[in-house]
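Consider a concrete sample entry:
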Amino acid sequence: MGGESAVGPDHDAERGPTARARLDWVDALKGVGIVAVVAGHVWTRGWVRDAIYAVHMPLFFILSGYTTRHVPWRIFLPAALRSLWVPFFCFSAILLAADFLIEGAKGFRPIFSGWWHGATTILFHAEQTRGPFTILWFIPCLFLARLAWNALTANGRRPNAPLLVVAMALVFALALFAHHFGQWSPLALLALPGALLMIWAGALWRHWGPPPRIGAVAMAMIAVAVLIWFPPVNMKQGDIGWPGLSLAGAMAVTVTLAALLQRLPIALIGGLAMLGRATLVIMYAHVALIHYLRPYAPAAVIFIAALALSWELDRRLRRFASSRRILLGESKVGR
């Protein structure tokens, strides 16, 4: 999820229309990812769900690593706070208010007993979030992962530098610890080691470039195996599937999908790119729509409604400077 409209600041050094055209496939891949996220929250059992959970969240961290560059802290921190934390707090408050109102109107008990209970659970017990709030672990985790990555890549340090390789070995040990022993996840810390490994993988991908033909074929074969046989990954709980293998498999799926999208005309991937640029709002809105619609419609209808209504919400929020600043985290808003 590179780009402010997705999950936060994209500090790519390349700017302008040419760079935008070159990165349309990135937005399209985010579009594929967010469609998979919505589907995984609608169909919560079976082979399709397991295949989606084998790759969908690692994909976004990989893309973050692919598009992120080290920037000075005086630029990074204000940009990250504006584009990640401001929308996070606003959408969290909206979701809390919506749950109190909707469940109260139906005569049901809301998920949280009050504002304080909801806020402390969202911030300090990400492992316990459910219903409309289940996706809220992602932004704190992304912020901390990018914070760590910005520190690790200081002084022009490349992703294959020896110091970074050693650091990632230690991070992998932390990921194993979280996988086997993690129980409490303030600010989604259980997911942080796996997220940092995926950001590193994305940075290596950008540094080394696309794999050669034989490597691409091998990646495609691994990707098929991942989708058929690999166990689901629940990063929110610190679950990284088969340690090492599942994260490498998610990388293979991501690179294979990217290669396929890069070979398609821009006109054919335009719809997916459009969804990719609306990822932030779709991420926040779709689970609530699924949660409140589930008793009243079949799964296929809920899937289409959650995706379409979330995208429409993003489109409407972009009409107003205030909502673009507060809910989309944008800094420069023209008329």
Q: What stands out?
A: Residues 218 and 305 are 37 Å apart (CA to CA).
